[in-house]
Amino acid sequence: MSIVIRNGTIVNATGAYPADVLVEGERIAALAAPDSGLAEQWAAGAERVIDAAGKYVVPGGIDGHTHMEMPFGGTFSADNFETGTIAAAWGGTTTIVDFAVQGKGTSVLSALDKWHSKADGNCAIDYGFHMIVSDVNDTSLKEMEACIDAGVNTFKMFMAYPGVFYATDGEILRAMQKARDTGSMIMMHAENGIAIDQLVLQALANGQTDPVQHGLTRPPELEGEATSRAIALAKVTGSPLYIVHLSAAHALDAVTQARDTGQNVFAETCPQYLFLSLEDLARPDFEGAKYVASPPLRPKEHQAELWRGLRTNDLSLVSTDHCPFCFKDQKELGRGDFSKIPNGMPGVEHRMDLLYQGVVRGEITLPRWVEISSTTPARMFGLYPRKGVIAPGADADITVYDPTAQQTISARTHHMNVDYSAYEGMELTGKVSTVLSRGRVVVDDNGFHGAAGHGRFLKRDLSQYLV
Ligand SMILES: [Zn+2]
Fold first, then answer.
1. Ligand 1 mean position, distance from CA 35 (Å)
2. How far is the CA of 290 from the centre of ligand 1 (A)?
3. Which stretches of the chain score pLDDT less than 50?
4. What does the record list as coiled-coil region(s) (predicted)?
5. Which residues contact 117 (CB under 8 A, 6 or more apart)?
6. pLDDT score at 1
7. Distance 54 CA to ligand 1 centre (A)
8. Scanning 38, 73, 166, 284, which has its CA 20 to 30 A from the CA of 357?
9. What separation in Å is there between the alpha carbon of 398 and the centre of ligand 1?
10. How far apart are the first and last CA of the chain?
């Protein structure tokens, strides 16, 4: 089966140029100058020719931070691996890396088995796992080694959520030593959960129960402090450190400083922190609950700092932290008590589109758009050059993107299994027109053509991004 994508502009992290793409089977076989004899030959012999005139041909997006079917506060995030990966494909994302969860008192390897049983045979696009380590002990530290052998070499820990996922500094230190010894990487949810929990209790005692309190009780200083502390622990142990969902200028300052000294410290941010703010959390009539995620949405002035970080590579990439909960029945669990609102927002479908608005607005360049949404995630998480680049030999994970099409985001038209959109009514320039996952057209103008079970588990190499 061969497919030729003609007349488009290839955009990789290194630049943009016109070329035709020959896809054979699951891989990109070759590129050719448009209108060359070779390109003509390919088109004549191809089973399918996709006309990409006026469009960008980019490596499929890689969302390095999703939570499908994740247990939280007595409920589960609303997308399972099937609905979530189909929604991702609609938005031009062809790989996700989801978080398996080791609960307290359970084993790391049994958590990995459990996540395989949820995902295997159900994903429409390729997928990998990170491992949340919430119980650090001799056994789980040993199990991290088996996890790495199984292609899961990024371990997330929490300085937030005491009593649930929270790890002490001593536990973090021990896990970081294991990461240093094995070449793996610690990912950190950096918020000072001990202090935050006191602020939450005080707010509730004062009768302050609205969703906006979620933001006010998690001040940016406590994200900055935790980020600095994680960086210090990483420095002492020599472990690489990856800060997940960085939201605050205070935390970015700490990351920037560490990077300036050559430390292996990296951070991602998420579209919600670039486009939404504390004002959304303050929406009346419990509407703010739709915007409850941790860290919380910040005052608007943080957004410019985050865009600056994306330009200077102090923020290396953008993931979604996709963790959808329906407004009805799920977010509503927190009516009258903001601390009971499930933490998380939907986003896996719109990451590429939202980031493209950064190109439209002049915040980032076109190649940087590809770099932060696909190429760097591939390198950061050990998938390059199989993923993250349009080049011969790479998997044919390809998104053909129409840079001039207009669209309006709405829960009525999105494909995520959630009853609201955090971006309802937002008008965007640019839209996905065709998506290939390992050589199979899964989305085009006529709809979705993929299937649950097409997606394969990705056994990831160690990070290719370390300095
Ligand atoms: Zn998360």
1. 46
2. 16
3. none
4. none
5. none
6. 77
7. 36
8. 284
9. 26
10. 40
